[in-house]
Write a structure and sequence with these properties.
It is a single chain. The chain is built from four helices and no strands. With 82 residues, the protein is mainly alpha-helical.
Length: 82
């Protein structure tokens, strides 16, 4: 799967969310929430369909999967439909 601009931003959003969840102190958590919100804003403003059902963005944003989990789920769905 090729990494596009939207895929890159989804991946970075997912990484930021993982950092929020793994933060041990409030300042770090606030920082990573800001980063996560920035990526979310870029996705929302630049890519209208970034979180459509069945997309990487949907699984990352709506189902709270990591980026790699979302990719694995999509690949599994594609191979099971063949």
């Amino acid at each position: 799967m090729a990494i596009t601009n939207v895929e890159y931003l989804i991946q970075k959003y997912s990484e930021a969310r993982e950092n929020v969840n793994g933060s041990n102190d409030n300042n770090s958590k606030i920082y990573w929430k800001g980063v996560m919100d920035t990526y979310h804003s870029l996705l929302t403003l630049g890519f209208l369909d970034w979180s459509n059902p069945g997309s990487t963005g949907y699984y990352v944003f709506q189902e709270n999967l990591t980026y790699q989990q979302a990719i694995n789920k999509i690949e599994k769905e594609l191979t099971s439909n063949c």
